[in-house]
Every structure is written in structure tokens, then in C-alpha cells.
Design a protein that fits this description.
The chain has 260 residues and is of the alpha/beta class. The protein has 2 domains: 6-201, 2-enoyl-CoA Hydratase, Chain A, domain 1; 205-259. Helices cover 47% and strands 17% of the residues. The chain has 12 helices and 10 strands. The strands form 2 sheets. It has a 6-stranded mixed beta sheet with strand order 1-2-3-5-7-10, sandwiched between helices. The longest helix has 17 residues, at 243-259. The protein is globular, with a radius of gyration of 19 Å. The mean pLDDT is 91.
Length: 260
């Protein structure tokens, strides 16, 4: 396997990004976090890329979070847990990419790794995937969003159960709780993600970016404010769509529906 700490493969509008430190459970070292920012920024600017798949090398770990050896050996390294810059905060690094990001969770996603998973737009999990929030056990408060995102995804009581125990959540339960979209056999994980990415890649890229942004912006608001936001943006966007374009796309949607 390559010595590069992040591998990038691009094909048919889809970029596969692999965190490549399998011997360290793909832990988020300072160098890896910086590289992830560079990669995600470049993919955001790359007009040939419409969808990104993020995964970890090997079968054991998606990522085990911050590199604890590095944190314990370098003065000031713990500041990474509250880093605001996207070059040190991997969640923000992922969020710099306006295109859809599919998380292919191939193994454990622990603490900071759990936060990285939550930064993805869609999660597909291998049967080997497991999630754990061990912030309380390590004695470090989350600073990349987990304490707020998790409760909104799975409910406040379930989030408290995970975060205040540090226990692992298996893939099947994660699916049942709505944390991941679905669980597939380990040897089918990337193929499943590639098929979904291929479907997403057929959507006009600019429209996909705008729609993702609308969903994200609305989700952070109250329901009433989110509905007003949708009306504002849809009125502006839809006023530019011609009847001829709608008819052309309608026919394409019908044709696709007959093959699915």
C-alpha cells in the first residue's frame, strides 16, 4: 500500500478518498488533518468531481480519532480538539467540500472519528462498523460538533447513553437508530457506495451543491424559518427554469423510473 497518508482515486465523477494509516487505525495525526483539508479543498474545486466517498484503509478502522500518542507527546497538541481552522479540524475540512460526501464506514469510528463520520452527508456502514464516543473516558470535551449533532440524529436519550457510557454501538443498532442509512457486507461496502455515488453524480453539479446547502441551512433553523428559507431560495431558482427544460427532464426521469 502507498506511503501516502491519504489516497485519492477519481473515476466517472466520483472521488474515493481513503485515510491511509491502517497501522495506527487511521488516527487523525496533525499531518493527516492538514492533508485532508488540502484534498477536500482540491476536490471542491475540481469540476470533474461531483461526489466524494470517504473511507479508511483496512478493515479495522474508519478512523480512531485524534492520534493519542501525538497528543501525549507534543505540547499544545490537545488544542486540536478545539481547532477552528479547517486545516486542523477534519470536520470543517470535510465541510469545505460543497459536493455530497458519502461516508463508507469500514470499521470503528471512535470519538474524533465518530465526529468525522457525522460530517459526511450519508453513511453506509460495513457489518464490521462500530461507533463509540469515548470523550468522557478520555476526559476531553468534544469540540467538533458531536455533542450537538448526535442528539439531533438519534434522539437525546440515546445520545446520552452513548456519550455518558463510552460504550460501542454496533452497525445493526446504528442502522435501527437512524445513525447510518444502511448496513452491507464488508466486501460490498465500496461497491454499494460507488453505486449510490454514481446516481448522485448524474445530477447537475451546481444544482446538487445548492440543494445540499439548502438542506443544511434549513436543518440548523427552526421549522418555520426553514420553510421560509426554502420558499425564498426556490422562488429565486425556479423562476429561471424554462418549461422546455422541465419537459426534457421529465422525460428523462420517466425513462429512468422504468429501469429501476
Amino acid at each position: 500500500m502507498s506511503d501516502d497518508i491519504i489516497l485519492v482515486e477519481k473515476e466517472d465523477g466520483v472521488a474515493l478518498v481513503t485515510l491511509n494509516r491502517p497501522n495506527a487505525m487511521n488516527a487523525l495525526s496533525k499531518a493527516l488533518r492538514s492533508k485532508l483539508y488540502q484534498v477536500m479543498t482540491a476536490l471542491d474545486r475540481d469540476d470533474e468531481v461531483r461526489v466524494v466517498i470517504l473511507t479508511g484503509a483496512g478493515t479495522k478502522a474508519f478512523t480512531a480519532g485524534l492520534d493519542l500518542k501525538e497528543l501525549g507527546s507534543e505540547p499544545g497538541a490537545l488544542g486540536a480538539a478545539n481547532a477552528e481552522g479547517a486545516d486542523e479540524n477534519p470536520v470543517k475540512a470535510i465541510e469545505t467540500c460543497r459536493k455530497p460526501v458519502i461516508g463508507a464506514i469500514n470499521g470503528v469510528a471512535i470519538t474524533g472519528g465518530f465526529e468525522v463520520a457525522l460530517a459526511c452527508d450519508v453513511l453506509i456502514a460495513s457489518e464490521n462498523a462500530r461507533f463509540a464516543d469515548t470523550h468522557a473516558r478520555v476526559g476531553i470535551m468534544p469540540g467538533w460538533g458531536l455533542s450537538q449533532k448526535l442528539s439531533r440524529l438519534i434522539g437525546i436519550a440515546r445520545a446520552k447513553e452513548l456519550s455518558l457510557s463510552g460504550n460501542f454501538l454496533d452497525a445493526a443498532t446504528a442502522e435501527r437508530w437512524g445513525l447510518v442509512n444502511r448496513v452491507v457486507p464488508a466486501d460490498e461496502l465500496l461497491a454499494t457506495c460507488r453505486r449510490l455515488a454514481a446516481d448522485m453524480a448524474t445530477i447537475d453539479s451546481a444544482f446538487s451543491v445548492a440543494y445540499k446547502q439548502l438542506i443544511n441551512d434549513g436543518y440548523s433553523r427552526s421549522f418555520g424559518d426553514a420553510m421560509a428559507l426554502e420558499h425564498e431560495r426556490s422562488s429565486s431558482a425556479n423562476s429561471k427554469v424554462t418549461p422546455e427544460a422541465v419537459e426534457q427532464r421529465r422525460a428523462a426521469v420517466q425513462a429512468r423510473g422504468r429501469t429501476q
